[in-house]
Specification:
about 600 residues; alpha/beta; Rossmann fold; 3 domains; eight-stranded antiparallel beta sheet; seven-stranded antiparallel beta sheet; about 35% helix; binds 5-amino-5-deoxy-1-O-phosphono-D-mannitol
C-alpha cells in the first residue's frame, strides 16, 4: 500500500532523510514514489518518479537540497489512477502553498472533487488524494488543527494524511483514520512514518497515533488532539531488536527469510514449551482456556488465511473444537452470530491488514472473545485485540510471506495442544508431537541443504503456463499456499486441488503441458493420492512428487523431490519449505523481482 514519511530539522538533510526513509518502507508498496522539501525562505521542490524509490533517488541526485530542512515523501500502491508521475504523491493545493501525502482511500472523493471544480479548482491527477489538499486550502481558517478538524468532518474513508505549508517551514500536521501513523522523536530531529520500524536507529521514542487523532509537529513541540481535546498519547521507547532487517550475504530477502526458519521456530518455542517436562506455558492461553470456548472462528487473508486452515486441522483433530475459517473481506460483510462460548482468532503478519482489523473491531463491538496471532508488536491488530500470541518471526521484508507463515502455523499448533490438555488429551500422542516439534528446526535445516536439488527440478518446469498443486486433508492447505506463492512470485497460473476431486471436472485440463505437483509422503491417504496420479499419467500429464526419501516407487515418477518426513501433524512445516523454494527458484529463473513482485504490497491497508 502507500506509505508516508516525514522529517523536520537540519537544513540540508531533508531530502536525504526522506529518501532513506522511503527506501526502508519500500517493501510495503513500490509502484512509484515522490517527495517534497521546503526551506525557511518558502522555497519548495517536488520530485516524483514512477517505479522503485531508486528512480526517485536518481532524479533527486540532480538537485541541490542544501537549504531544505523539512520534507515529506511517499511510496505509492495505485488505487485511484494509473501508475503515472502525475498521480504520484505529494499533491499540491491550487495556489501551491499546501502539499499532502496520503495513505488510504477517500471514498467520497468524486463528490468533493465536483464541489471544488464548481469553485474553479483544477486538478492535475486522477487520485482521490488531491481533493484533500484542495479542500484543505478551500476551508483554511488560519489554524492548521481547526482546519484539519473541519476537513475530517467532510471526508469518508481511510487516511493517514501529512501536510506541509510552504509558508511555514517549521510545522507538519495531519491526521489518521485506519491507516497506521507514528510520530518519532530523535535527539533533535522529528519524524512521521507509517511504520515505526523505519525509524529505529533514528529516534529515541515514538507515539502511535490512534484513529481520529489530529497532530501538529514542530522541531521543539508537538500536539495531538482527539475530538478537539488534547490527547495524552504515551511516548514509547524504541525496541532496537525490531530494526529493519539487513540482507547480509543473501541475494534477496525472500531467500534469507526462508533460510531463517529454523531459527524462527526456536524463537517461537522459547519460554512456551519445556521439552523435558512436556509442559506448555502461556499466560494468554491460560486465560483463553478458562473461557469455556466451544467453537472458534479464524479470520485472516492470504497466507495468514492458509495458516488458519492448518489451525482448523490442529484444533479440530487434537483439541476437538469445531473451527470455521473465513477470509477477512468476506467475514466483514456477512451476518454474524457472535456468542460468548466462541473465540474469534485474527491472524496477520503485519497486524495492519485493514479487513482483518475491521472484522476484529466488529466482533469486539458485539462483545465477542477476540484473540490475535500477529508478528508485529504494537500493530493495530495487536492493540485492538488486547490478547495475542506473537509469532516472533522478526521483520519480514519479502512480500511473499514465508517465515511468518511457519510461525503462525506453529502458534495454532501450540494453541491446539494447550486446549487439548484441557479437553481429552491422548498423552502418548501428545508426547509424540512434542518430541517431533523439538526436532523440527533441525529437520528444516536438513531440508534447506537440498536447496540446489529443489532448484534443479523446479527450473525444469519454469516455462509451464499452468500447474495443479494436489494434496489431501492438511496437505491440501499446503497445496493452496503453494499455489498462492507461485502466482504471487512467478506470475504463473496455478490451482490447488484436492487430488480426489480432480476427476469431477478439472482433469479435463490435463495434457503434457499442464504439470501437477503432489505431496505423497506415505500417510494414510497415500494410496488415494497414488491413484489420482495414475489417472493424470494415463492422460499424458506429468506429476512431480514430493515423497519420502525411502519411497520404493521412485523410479515410476516423472520427477521427485525427496524429504525425511516427521509425523503427519508436523509434515506441513517441511512441505511448505519445499514449496517456498520451488516457487522461489521458478520465479528467480524467470527474472522476477522476488522481494517486490509486481502489483503487490507487503501490507494491505486499504479495503
Ligand atoms: O499481514 P497479513 O498477514 O495480514 O497479510 C495478509 C496477506 O496480504 C498476505 O499473507 C499475502 O497473501 C502474502 N503476500 C502472501 O505471501
Amino acid at each position: 500500500m502507500c506509505w508516508v514519511f516525514g522529517y523536520i530539522w537540519h537544513p540540508g538533510s531533508a531530502a536525504r532523510e526522506v529518501i532513506a526513509g522511503l527506501q526502508r518502507l519500500e517493501y510495503r508498496g513500490y509502484d512509484s514514489a515522490g517527495l517534497c522539501v521546503i526551506d525557511h525562505a518558502s522555497n519548495m521542490q517536488v520530485i516524483r518518479a514512477v517505479g522503485k524509490v531508486n528512480n526517485l533517488k536518481v532524479k533527486s541526485d540532480q538537485h541541490d537540497f542544501s537549504t531544505y530542512h523539512a520534507g515529506i515523501g511517499h511510496t505509492r500502491w495505485a488505487t485511484h489512477g494509473g501508475v503515472t508521475e502525475a498521480n504520484c504523491h505529494p499533491h499540491l493545493s491550487q495556489s501551491g502553498r499546501f502539499v499532502v501525502i496520503h495513505n488510504g482511500i477517500i471514498e467520497n472523493y468524486s463528490e468533493l472533487k465536483q464541489e471544488l471544480i464548481e469553485k474553479w479548482y483544477t486538478f492535475n491527477s486522477e487520485t482521490d488524494t488531491e481533493v484533500t489538499v484542495q479542500l484543505f486550502e478551500d476551508i483554511f481558517d488560519g489554524d492548521y488543527l481547526s482546519t484539519i478538524t473541519k476537513l475530517v468532518s467532510r471526508m469518508h474513508g481511510a487516511y493517514g494524511l501529512v501536510f506541509l505549508d510552504r509558508d511555514n517551514g517549521n510545522t507538519m500536521f495531519g491526521t489518521k483514520k485506519w491507516s497506521p501513523m507514528v510520530l518519532g522523536f530523535g535527539k533533535t530531529e522529528r519524524y512521521i512514518s507509517s511504520d515505526y520500524r523505519s525509524l529505529i536507529g533514528l529516534i529515541d521514542d515514538y507515539i502511535i497515533l490512534e484513529d481520529g487523532d489530529i497532530f501538529l509537529l514542530t522541531p521543539d513541540n508537538y500536539q495531538v488532539l482527539s475530538e478537539w481535546l488534547a490527547a495524552d498519547r504515551i511516548r514509547q521507547t524504541v525496541d532496537e531488536s525490531e530494526k529493519v532487517a539487513e540482507l547480509g550475504d543473501f541475494p534477496n530477502f525472500m531467500l534469507k527469510e526462508v533460510f531463517e526458519q529454523p531459527r524462527v521456530l526456536e524463537d517461537v518455542f522459547r519460554g512456551r514449551i519445556d521439552f523435558d517436562a512436556y509442559s506448555l506455558h502461556s499466560h494468554t492461553l491460560a486465560h483463553i482456556a478458562t473461557l469455556g470456548i466451544k467453537r472458534i472462528t479464524v479470520v485472516a487473508s492470504g497466507t495468514s488465511y492458509h495458516s488458519g486452515l492448518l489451525g482448523k486441522y490442529y484444533l479440530e483433530e487434537l483439541a476437538n473444537i469445531p473451527v470455521d475459517v473465513i477470509v477477512s473481506t468476506e467475514f466483514k460483510y456477512k451476518k454474524k452470530f457472535v456468542s460468548t462460548d466462541e473465540l474469534y482468532i485474527f491472524v496477520s503478519q503485519s497486524g495492519e491488514t485493514i479487513d482483518t482489523l475491521d472484522s476484529l473491531k466488529i466482533v469486539k463491538e458485539q462483545w465477542g472473545h477476540v484473540f490475535a496471532i500477529v508478528n508485529v508488536p504494537g500493530s493495530a491488530i495487536a492493540r485492538a485485540a488486547g490478547q495475542w500470541l506473537f509469532t516472533r518471526a522478526g521483520t519480514e521484508v519479502g512480500v511473499a510471506s514465508t517465515k511468518a507463515f511457519v510461525s503462525q502455523v506453529w502458534c495454532f499448533l501450540f494453541l491446539a495442544l494447550y486446549l487439548w490438555q484441557k479437553n481429552g488429551l491422548d498423552y502418548r500422542k501428545y508426547r509424540e508431537i512434542i518430541d517431533s516439534i523439538d526436532k523440527l528446526p533441525e529437520a528444516i535445516s536438513d531440508l534447506l541443504l537440498q536447496n540446489e536439488a529443489i532448484k534443479q527440478v523446479a527450473e525444469k518446469y519454469a516455462h509451464s503456463q499452468n500447474f495443479f498443486y494436489l494434496g489431501r486433508a492438511h496437505e491440501l492447505v499446503i497445496a493452496m499456499e503453494w499455489s498462492l506463492k507461485l502466482k504471487e512470485l512467478a506470475y504463473i497460473h496455478s490451482e490447488a486441488y484436492s487430488s480426489g476431486e480432480l476427476k469431477h471436472g478439472s482433469i479435463a485440463l490435463i495434457d503434457a503441458e499442464f504439470p501437477s505437483l503432489m505431496v505423497n509422503w506415505g500417510g494414510i491417504l497415500s494410496p488415494k493420492n497414488a491413484s489420482s496420479a495414475e489417472e493424470i499419467r494415463a492422460r499424458g500429464g506429468k506429476v512431480v512428487w514430493i515423497i519420502a526419501k525411502w519411497d520404493s516407487n521412485k523410479h515410476i515418477y516423472a520427477d521427485t523431490i525427496e524429504f525425511n518426513p516427521l509425523i503427519s501433524e508436523l509434515n506441513p512445516f517441511l512441505e511448505v519449505v519445499i514449496l517456498q523454494l520451488w516457487a522461489y527458484h521458478i520465479a528467480n529463473s524467470l527474472g522476477r523481482d522476488v522481494d517486490k513482485p509486481r502489483n503487490l504490497a507487503k501490507s494491505v491497508t486499504v479495503e
